[in-house]
Design a protein that fits this description.
The structure is a single chain. The chain is mostly helical. The chain has one domain: Orthogonal Bundle (Ribonucleotide Reductase, subunit A). The protein has eight helices and two strands; from the N terminus they run E-H-H-E-H-H-H-H-H-H. It has a two-stranded parallel ribbon with strand order 1-2.
Length: about 250
């Protein structure tokens, strides 16, 4: 079910949403979703449902890029095709654990902002910079935090799920890093396009999450995971510094 509020989103930043059947209630902003407080019995189950849909966004973005850029280099197209397959597997992983813990598909609202931002970009290098080098790189950090938390609770099923997801995300970010750098090396003007795309994506992300959503972010940067994913040490240091500052501000606000 498409939420009427979606009609009001900035057309420059947000494109059309992906198709969803009548089971799903789609919202625009984090504050419109069901956001259980830390320690709530249903918080983790709701997260699995939201993550299931985010992985669907990842699969749809990868498939859309394959369809939209048929003349792209064969090697990057193969990487995107593998990513599409990985994301489809992640959807099924999260569906299984969500339903096994009592959830019903469509029980909670979902957000489709990742698809709407990324599919609206007109260049493959822009899409991979935003989807893989930005959103999925952040996913590496979040999953590392999730692994540690699940291990503390002794939830080995979640640890195993997250470890499989993280291994895939690292490969997705790595091929995008290589592709973006190669594009900029061949055409330095690509750097300006990528910077603009990242700025628009950051603006859109803040519009969706708001200060309420950002204040709940607890994780820092997985420096080892980002290095393995192909970021250079300086990029990792900057990201780590920004994450540390963000968490300090959240804790004092």
């Amino acid at each position: 079910m498409r939420d009427r509020a979606e009609q009001t989103m900035d057309a420059e930043t947000f494109g059309e949403p992906p198709a969803r059947d009548e089971r799903f209630c789609v919202k625009d902003r984090w504050s419109e979703c069901v956001n259980f407080p830390k320690g709530h019995a249903l918080k983790e189950v709701e997260f699995f449902h939201r993550q299931l849909n985010e992985e669907m966004n990842g699969m749809e973005n990868a498939a859309r890029s394959l369809a939209d850029f048929p003349d792209a280099d064969w090697n990057v197209r193969m990487c995107i095709a593998r990513q599409c397959s990985d994301e489809a597997r992640h959807v099924l992983m999260f569906q299984r654990i969500f339903e096994s813990r009592g959830g019903t598909i469509g029980e909670y609202p979902v957000l489709n902002f990742q698809y709407r931002i990324i599919a609206n970009l007109q260049n493959l290098v822009d899409r991979l910079a935003v989807q893989n080098r930005s959103f999925e790189a952040g996913g590496i950090d979040a999953v590392s935090f999730g692994i540690d938390e699940a291990r503390k609770k002794g939830d080995l099923e979640v640890v195993e799920l997250f470890e499989m997801q993280q291994a895939d995300e690292i490969t997705h970010v790595r091929f995008a890093n290589e592709y973006v750098r190669d594009c900029i090396h061949r055409d330095p003007r690509s750097a300006l396009r990528v910077a603009r795309a990242l700025t628009l994506a950051s603006k859109a992300f803040m519009q969706v999450m708001g200060s309420e959503g950002m204040s709940n972010v607890e994780y820092l940067v997985d420096e080892g995971g980002r290095l393995e994913a192909g970021f250079d040490p300086q990029e990792v240091r900057v990201a780590a510094s920004q994450a540390t500052t963000r968490r300090a501000l959240n804790r004092t606000s």
